[in-house]
Input
Amino acid sequence: MNVRATIAYAGRGISRPRYHANDFRRDLLDIAPLEMDIADARGRDTTLDGAGFTLVAHQSSVADFTDRTAVAAIHRHEIVDLIGTLSGADLVLVNSPGVLRFSEKSAISGTLDNSRPARFAHVDLSDETAAAFAQRAAPDGRKLARFAHFNVWRAISAPPQDVPLAVCDARSVNRDDLILADAVFDAPGKPEWSFEGVVVAHACAHRWHWFPDMTRDEALVFKTHDSDPARAHCVPHVAFNNPFATPQTPPRASIEMRAIALWFTWDRRL
Output
């Protein structure tokens, strides 16, 4: 199902955009919504090194993804194995407990930390942040040859999704389309912290895709950074309103897991 829907791009009216995980009223964003074609990616040959994203069959042993203990004990290791298989990295780390999100029709949306859909086109990490996180994650004494950051997105509600995720082919994105911004994490009762992320300005060349009717046994894997310039660099993504959804369509629930893949230089003299 190819669709045409609104993509909330960033305008260039703010020199340093700023967005918050919870209190959106404090955001400093110049939102420039535009209608864009979003192609059905099912059946297309999309790869992590080409388009920067792919859909894989992936069953989890977790019965309830809202169970934080089960996600930490089981699903984190499942994602390590998945990204290790897909990337061939020397080491894969998943430190995030997983981000649960619920479309605005859900009574849960906004009640948990960072639980609303991301409604503007963005990339989770800037190049500087990606490098800093990778260096911090690398074991002492190991020199990095390459690093890549991955997001693993899974719908945990039954299809169809009223607010699915769109991903943009990395090959259609120019560096000039990426605007550095501050991503602020403002969990209630905790100190605020932030890192540098990216919001995305419109370009006619952008090729957006989605995977309709995702199930809990599928995972959308996409890159948020790759240090190898010969491979897909990063994939802008955004939640959008499914034009085929009806008032009876249940609210989307999803979980995303974030992983760092590391490759090391090896001393051939040893």
